[in-house]
Write a structure and sequence with these properties.
It is a single chain. By secondary structure, the chain is of the alpha+beta class. It has a single domain, classed as ATP adenylyltransferase (HIT family, subunit A, 2-Layer Sandwich). About 25% of the residues lie in helices and about 25% in strands. It is built from 7 helices and 13 strands. A hairpin with a 3-residue loop joins strand 9 and strand 10. Helix 3 crosses helix 5. The radius of gyration is 17 Å and the shape is globular.
Length: about 260
């Protein structure tokens, strides 16, 4: 049984027991500029997430045993996201507290790459609260499915600052080397606390996106938004998306 098969089994049990609390409705497609953006509106489970974040502290030390999938490598554990937007949605967390804003390490890439086994995985990382991070404890994220912005990324059609690397295989040491190089070239790399950024990773490429702010027009953005998924607070925000355009919102929250 691989990691995704285990995650689906754990998710099924956690959903049945009430431990897993999806926070989004079914998807709606918003076609703009030849891209089929996926839009979701939050449900009432978001209130439980907000309440939990205020009272629980670090959710990864200790972690909810109902969310446990496996010890993916010596230094990292694989957990379900208790409040997923997409399902299954897994987290690769450091066993000990490491600040989310510090640079990723080779160990992080080695653990992260363990989740890429079927070819349709999408990894994303939120480096700092300004980039959408909800927790300060080091965690990389993985979901499965299409990346609506894949073609635009590969064609170089993004109208904001970024650094794109293509690869033929996920080799952790090469990814780490490119990551450090890209972060330095973008002026984001610091030995202690990096400047805010998002990182997206697929079997074919990874991209670093510097962030300028966490929201625009009331819409919060994390790394998943830069893959083409939007989580909205209300039906009214669908009108905002229609008026401003998804790509314009992404541009407003990144660096030109």
């Amino acid at each position: 049984m691989n990691i995704w098969e285990r995650s689906e089994r754990v998710a099924s049990m956690a959903l049945e027991s009430g431990s897993l609390l999806p926070i989004a409705t079914s998807s709606r497609v918003c076609s703009q500029d030849g891209i089929d953006f996926q839009l979701k509106v939050i449900n009432q489970n978001i209130l439980k997430k907000i309440s939990t974040s205020k009272t629980q502290g670090n959710p990864f030390l200790p972690y909810d045993k109902d969310m446990f999938i496996e010890n993916i490598v010596e230094h990292h554990v694989c957990l379900l996201n208790k409040f997923p937007v997409l399902s299954p949605h897994i987290l690769i967390c450091s066993n000990e507290f490491i600040e989310q804003r510090t640079p990723l390490s080779l160990l992080d890439f080695e653990a992260w790459c363990k989740g890429f086994i079927e070819g349709d995985e999408l990894g994303f990382y939120n480096g700092a609260r300004e980039a959408g991070a909800s927790q300060p404890h080091r965690h990389m994220q993985l979901v499965k499915g299409v990346c609506p912005l894949d073609k635009a990324i590969m064609r170089g059609e993004l109208e904001f600052t970024h650094k794109l690397y293509r690869h033929y295989e996920l080799e952790p040491s090469q990814l780490f080397e490119s990551y450090v190089q890209g972060m330095q070239e973008l002026g984001l790399y610091r030995e202690d606390i990096c400047l805010p950024y998002n990182l997206l990773l697929t079997k074919d490429w990874f991209i670093i996106i510097p962030r300028s702010k966490v929201k625009d027009s009331g819409i919060f953005l994390n790394g998943l938004n830069y893959a083409g998924y939007f989580l909205l607070k209300s039906e009214e925000q669908l009108d905002v998306i229609g008026q401003l355009g998804c790509m314009q919102i992404l541009k407003a929250c990144s660096q030109e």
